[in-house]
Q: What sequence folds into this?
């Protein structure tokens, strides 16, 4: 079973991101706009309870933090993804690190560049058109993130939330 | 802002439901298969924190319970919805009641008939065809439900999870 860990930003930021994803991101229908904290990993339904316990401890140990959108950027020449770049501030980077330990799996398929995807699998022509439009626009936005989510993938490729973890909550 | 409260059943049951929803349910792309516990209600982002606190208390007071799929059924003649009927056992009915109090909003647009929608907005002809096929099939399934989710709706009609509540957890 495929699992992943992500942040859903505010409705406002999700709606903004979706207004681009609708046209430019084939994953638009599979998952709401999100910042990936841990890429797809496989686990069993049994083992996920152990992982959930670890995530609960991590979430308590880290405080809510500011998510800041910096600008529109791209992963070219690696791939034709356009995204909103998120400030890799210390809190976000430390949380990402905490989710890549021995017991949760250390493997990082990519260097951590926190982002909200707004387009992917674009042709070079589309890519350059879209990027041309968007780099003229200002994306200045800040908000507080106080939670992250553990999700699993259904057979049709969509993602369902398994559990939410609140940062800094000592229940 | 629109909110709702729902149960996501196991991946197995979601995948089964989606195999029908894909063809027969226009909401297929908006939300994973779910059992609605509280229909759409409006709230502000500020007030939802108060509601979240109430939901946490409710979730602690109710234990995990068995969700049992009984059969394929329909809301005809009210509307052309086909669904998997869920056994309205005492635990599920009591949880539903707990989510319809004075402080959470008592309004119930429908009598509570717990179900997993597999088709909706079908023509009478489609309805009778699909129902004819499905009533021949056995849907016997039981599983334990140990959580429910508070969700909010984005401008494009899709739903994002705000928070998960674990039943019977005394943290």
A:
């Amino acid at each position: 079973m495929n699992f992943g860990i992500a942040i859903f930003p505010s409705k406002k930021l999700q709606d903004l991101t979706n207004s681009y994803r609708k046209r430019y991101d084939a994953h638009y229908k599979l998952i709401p706009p999100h910042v990936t904290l841990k890429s797809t990993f496989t686990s069993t339904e049994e083992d996920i309870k152990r992982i959930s316990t670890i995530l609960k401890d991590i979430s308590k140990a880290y405080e809510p933090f500011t998510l800041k959108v910096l600008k529109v950027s791209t992963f070219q020449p690696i791939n034709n993804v356009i995204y909103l770049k998120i400030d890799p501030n210390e809190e976000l980077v430390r949380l990402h690190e905490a989710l890549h330990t021995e017991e949760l799996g250390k493997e990082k398929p990519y260097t951590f560049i926190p982002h909200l995807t707004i387009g992917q699998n674009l042709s070079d022509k589309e890519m350059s058109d879209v990027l041309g439009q968007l780099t003229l626009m200002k994306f200045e936005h800040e908000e507080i993130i106080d939670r992250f989510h553990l999700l699993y993938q259904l057979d049709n490729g969509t993602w369902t939330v398994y559990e939410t973890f609140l940062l800094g909550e000592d229940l």
Remarks:
- Helices of chain A lie at 11-24, 47-61, 90-98, 124-134.
